[in-house]
């Protein structure tokens, strides 16, 4: 995702201001997604979302990834993962 849409700090900040490594946040979000109903978001869309690739992401995929990332922030905070 380009920084014009979301800054890095917006993507990585979790509960109580904790930040998580992008790889850890992405892995947790993708694990959460596998438990959700519906079609999985393509890997390329995840790469775009986390800034590893450029391109366009459909609205359905964008909403689904945003929900997964928000849930991942909460999960990582509850699990006591250390922040950067």
TrEMBL record:
This is Uncharacterized protein. It comes from Ancylobacter pratisalsi.
């Amino acid at each position: 995702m380009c920084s014009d849409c979301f800054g890095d700090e917006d993507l990585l900040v979790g509960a109580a201001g904790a930040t998580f490594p992008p790889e850890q946040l992405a892995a947790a979000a993708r694990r959460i997604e596998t438990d959700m109903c519906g079609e999985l978001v393509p890997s390329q869309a995840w790469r775009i979302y986390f800034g590893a690739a450029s391109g366009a992401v459909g609205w359905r995929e964008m909403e689904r990834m945003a929900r997964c990332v928000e849930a991942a922030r909460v999960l990582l905070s509850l699990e006591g993962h250390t922040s950067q």
